[in-house]
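tool=predict chain=A
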Amino acid sequence: MLKSFNLSGEALALACAGNVPNLKREKNSEMHAMLCNVYINAWEDTVVAFVEGKPFCPPSITLKEMSVVFFDYLASHKDARELNAAEALMLAFKDKWPCH
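tool=predict ok
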């Protein structure tokens, strides 16, 4: 039986750190950034497929830029670090790009 993949917002933000300009690079930064990009891409596809309407309205930006937005949000919102990554992403993106 497959178990669901549960990743905390903090763990995803640490993976996304590999995409943040001017941060110290760790040994596995490229692999972590790749995980971040894949997670955000899959999350965004899922939101579009299963949520009626768009819950957030991002401009046309890259996954790397989205990961930096997420990293910055978690740096200033400690409570979001404890949430699961999917919920933390939604909060970060709705905060940055609220739909009207």
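The chain is about 55% helix and 0% strand. The mean pLDDT is 87.
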